[in-house]
Specification:
The complex is a heterodimer. By secondary structure, chain A is mostly beta strands. Chain A is built from no helices and 14 strands. Chain A is globular and about 50 Å long. The chains are: A mainly beta, B alpha/beta.
Chain lengths: 205, 345
């Protein structure tokens, strides 16, 4: 059991809110209008029965949605399923999970390394970052980089996938795509966790 | 649904896309009469950097797969459909071949191809192939017909077009016309052939190719601008087979509901005779152009693109019909527009 802060996101659209992923403690929405005295507004967790390690909470303010990721931390898909979750957050005190972003059968990826959700492009509030409330891009270790159309948030659809071959000397013998960022020109940067370096891609959908 | 979770990024038809195909796999259909040079074109394309990642489905009419042997050297994934013609008994084979390709790709038993190229038998009518993608929901959700290219041989093409209804249909339904072996004929003969092709299909660009050399972009990219460009030359082409083609253009933005009512009426009355309708609409309230495609009774869901392909903002719709003249279509839309509740406002 590991209960501590992971990604701790504050966006200018709601500077009095902190969207906190809290590893095995699920996630919290905090009122931080008094920085010295943050107050809990709501909490949501999928574990148990899932296996914890909540990683990122990204609100989509216009749409009243939240995108939440788990992190896969064990090799050979032992902690499957680690997913990207979509929550109805129109009422911030009552968060309702409405869907997950679909992944292929984990058995096809269980032979080597980690498989499952990790980072997403977080709509970083900078002019040099891409912002979207229609597309979610996430890294899934040996499941590669995947893009989902969440225009209908009840039925996310995969619209792009990039799974490069194992880099030379990869310790797990497979790709382990770890993080992703999209710039304002819609150029996608994704990195391997170990030795594969940086991959630069274009979105074509 | 969209009302529950509104987004400033989404339009009337949902997420705006970069291409009409969205995330679907593009399909290139290469058609053309026997001996037209389809395989040469294919081989050249597959051997070029642009052709990388292409899965090929070949429809052979004869029992010996000579064409398959020719292209296999340059492509990893070739599926050969056996003895028959794609337009009739082989349609289910095409469906199976495409489904198998997807399944094998998902399982990693074939490489991660990024497009599919279908070479039809020389005797195939491409109409039913296009219809397959429109009617098979599973295929339609995975594949998008990006380009239909017809190859016409410069030496005997004109003669073939004279006696073969299939050859004419191939030309009429194509987005791109590729004249092969242009180095083997006199300029005057080539001019006569091109005039015949333009008469049959005024909306498709005509490209020449010697030994299969063609700019790969002509196969990879559909050109939505063509309809407008070509309409200045021939407003309506009538073919001996009772097939008509024409372009309807409109400079003023259209109201979607009015257009949809008109199209629904046309489909209800004469859907079977709408061989192909495609184009871009400038719809009131939409930032980008709306792509519309109809094949007989089936209308693809409209898609709003992120941007117009050029400066022209006029709506432009190509109709290829069996016996429905331009005037009747224009009159129908004019009547619907006049009767619409918001008419005159």
């Amino acid at each position: 059991m590991d209960a501590r802060a992971h990604n701790t996101n504050v966006y200018p659209q709601r500077s009095d809110r902190c969207y906190l992923a809290y590893i095995d403690g699920g996630m919290f929405v905090l009122d931080i209008s008094d920085k010295a005295n943050p107050k809990r507004i709501s909490q949501w967790t999928n574990s148990p029965p899932y296996t914890g390690f909540m990683h990122t909470v990204m609100p989509l303010f216009d749409r009243g949605l939240m995108v939440i990721t788990d992190e896969s931390t064990e090799n050979n898909a032992k902690d499957w399923p680690k997913l990207i979750w979509i929550l109805d957050a129109r009422e911030e005190t009552n968060l309702v999970p409405i869907s997950t972003c679909p992944l292929p059968d984990h058995q096809a990826f269980a032979a080597k390394g980690r498989f499952g959700a990790h980072n997403i492009h977080e709509n970083v509030p900078r002019p040099t970052a891409w912002h979207s409330d229609q597309i979610v891009l996430g890294t899934f270790f040996n499941g590669g980089l995947r893009a989902y159309d969440i225009s209908n948030p009840y039925q996310p659809q995969q619209v792009g996938v990039f799974v490069p071959p194992a880099p030379p000397m990869a310790p797990t013998g497979t790709i382990q795509l770890n993080d992703v960022f999209v710039d304002e020109r819609e150029i996608v940067y994704t990195v391997d966790r170990h030795v594969g370096g940086l991959y630069i891609l274009e979105m074509d959908f | 649904m969209l009302d529950l979770f509104p987004s400033r990024e989404a339009g009337r038809f949902g997420r705006r896309r970069k291409h009409a195909r969205g995330a679907k796999l593009p399909v290139i259909v290469v058609t053309g009469f026997l001996g037209a040079g389809k395989t040469t074109l294919l081989r050249r394309f597959l051997g070029s950097p642009a052709g990388e990642g292409t899965a090929v489905v070949i429809n052979e009419f004869g029992s010996v797969g000579i064409d398959d042997a020719l292209v296999r050297a340059s492509s990893d994934d070739v599926t050969l459909l056996g003895n028959g013609c794609l337009c009739c008994n082989m349609r289910s084979d095409l469906q199976n071949a495409l489904r198998n390709l997807l399944a094998e790709r998902a399982h990693g038993t074939v490489p991660q191809f990024k497009r599919v190229l279908i070479e039809t038998s020389g005797l195939a009518d491409p109409g039913p192939i296009l219809q397959t993608f429109a009617t098979d929901r599973a295929l339609g959700s995975e594949f998008h017909v990006e380009t239909v290219a017809a190859v016409i041989e410069a030496v005997s093409g004109l003669e073939t077009l004279g006696w073969s209804a299939e050859a004419r249909k191939q030309v009429i339904l194509a987005d791109r016309l590729v004249v092969s072996k242009t180095d083997l004929v006199e300029p005057q003969a080539l001019k006569r052939l091109k005039a015949r092709l333009t008469a049959l299909n005024p909306h498709a660009a005509v490209h020449g190719a010697v030994e299969g050399r063609l700019d790969p972009r002509y196969l990879l990219e559909s050109d939505m601008r063509l309809a407008k460009t070509a309409s200045g030359f021939v407003a309506e082409a009538e073919h001996s087979d009772g097939i008509l083609s024409f372009v309807i253009t409109e400079n003023a933005p259209l109201t979607w509901d009015t257009f949809a009512r008109g199209m629904e009426t046309l489909i209800a009355l004469r859907g079977g005779d709408l061989l192909r309708v495609k184009g871009l609409l400038n719809v009131v309230g939409c930032r980008g152009p709306v792509v519309v495609q109809v094949a007989q009774h089936l209308a693809h869901p409209p898609v709003e693109l992120a941007a117009w392909p050029d400066q022209d903002r006029a709506s432009r719709l190509v109709f290829i019909t069996r016996g429905i003249p331009e005037r009747q279509v224009r009159d129908l839309f004019a009547s619907v527009r006049a009767l619409a509740p918001d008419a005159g406002r």
